[in-house]
Amino acid sequence: MSLGSGFRFKPSKNLPLSPLYPLIPTIQLQTPSLSLSHPSVFSERKNLVLRAQNLDIKSEQQLSAPSMEAKNEFPELNRNLYPDIEPYSTGFLKVSDLHTICWEQSGNPNGHPVVFLHGGPGGGTSPSNRKFFDPEFYRIILFDQRGAGKSTPHACLVDNTTWDLVEDVEKLREHLEIPEWQVFGGSWGSTLALAYSQTHPEKVTGIVLRGIFLLRKKEIDWFYEGGAAAIFPDAWEPFRDLIPENERGSFIDAYWKRLNSDDLETQYAAARAWTKWEMMTAHLIPNEEHIKKGDDDKFSLAFARIENHYFVNRGFLASDSFLLDNIEKIRHINTVIVQGRYDVCCPMISAWDLHKAWPEADFKVVPDAGHSANEPGITAELVAGNEKLKNIICNL
Question: So which domain of life are we looking at (predicted)?
Answer without folding.
Answer: Eukaryota
